[in-house]
Amino acid sequence: MPQLTAAAVLQIGLLISALPAQYILSRWSGSDSTQRTQASRRLIDNWNRFKRTYLNLQAWKDWLIEWSLKERSIEPDDLPGESPAMEVFLLKQNNGYFADSTEPRSPRPLSVKYRVGQVFTHKQEGYYGVIVGWDERARAPEEWLNERYLSDMQNLRNTPHYKVLIQAVDGGTSETAYIPESDIVIVTGVQVFHPLLIYYFSMFFGDQYIMMPWLLQLYPHD
User: Fold this and answer.
1) φ, ψ at 216 (rounded to 5°)
2) pTM for the full model?
3) Which of 13, 86, 153, 172 is most buried per CB count within 10 Å?
4) Which of 34, 51, 68 is the last residue of a domain?
5) CB 70 within 8 A of CB 103
6) CATH number for the domain including 211?
7) How many C-alpha atoms does 31 have within 13 Å on its Cβ side?
């Protein structure tokens, strides 16, 4: 009886799986060859995306770095380019403010239009940024809200707000911010450069960034 090697077993497995895979594709996408090709590409893209996010050793290393960053006490100088106006972003003081709550956002509110990982440009100021978190309505200290939203802007407090990383402009510093949904205009095909990106995302996937596993647990439907 011939001896089966690992390579032979792998080849046999691929041959056996080819027929059911073809059947599934034909059932899902119809008999048209173009539809089958598109379905195959979608499956391959989804698999590659899953592999890069969950089967990537570096992605899990980055997650450990982020976890350790959250666990230790952070001083203002630890975060590069931190905006003085955003000092309440410091993890030891956040109290769940500014989209830093560790409570998973599930189910996802219909009122929240944009998703973590999407790149945007600010409607008034024109800078580029990427969304790293959101709240269904502004969640911040009352003092901060009163300073930001005057009497004629109080309605904005009850709209979705997003924590964002802002790309440095003209050699300036990279910052974080907490902005209302009305200030955001989504763009595609644009990458943002910020020193904290590696803590939140594993890669850029053409139209948005792919969340690290720990972040995906907080925003499972984004």
Assistant:
1) -65, -30
2) 0.61
3) 86
4) 51
5) no
6) 2.30.30.390
7) 0
